[in-house]
Amino acid sequence: MLLVGCGKSSNTNGALLVDSLYRQGRYFLDVHCYDSALVCFAKAEEAFDEHTSVRYKGKIYANLASLHKDAGVFDVALDYAKKSLHAYESLSDTACVLLSWMDIADVYVKMGGEDMYRYAQKCYDNALSYFGGYCNDSIKGRIYQEKGVKYVHDNKLDSGLYYLYKSLTYPAQGNGYSIRN
Known about the structure:
Elements: H1 14-30, H2 34-46, H3 54-71, H4 74-91, H5 94-111, H6 114-129, H7 137-153, H8 157-167
Helix pairs in contact: 1-2, 2-3, 3-4, 3-5, 4-5, 5-6, 6-7, 7-8
């Protein structure tokens, strides 16, 4: 599907344009047109001005990070994930900050390698401790589960089992991970 209607008109104010492009990008994600979604989010980023809400910036950065991660462009994905984190931190939005740390960890995991797994573990720790351990139980369970899986993949079975068992005490939340290679 080709992208249509993502141009900038001369009489559209910046905030309205960003909102429109964000909504178009989300639509294209929903219908699995990832290239079109990427174009919309990139154009929305170009349209940022002093009136663009920080929340929209965070959302757009998070979507750009996800799309670049899925495309295997990890350095760009990491930059956008960090921009999203900083936007949400400036809003003191605990839930979005926690999820941003998870997104950054996921990029490190996708990059592969022992160093990247260590960075991912630090991100999970940051997610758990960001606001004195505040997060809802399903997110906490997911963090423990992902930490456990990463430790197992890293052949640190004792640590992996510890976190996997710990994750069982929280509500289940699937993430598509498998302990098997």
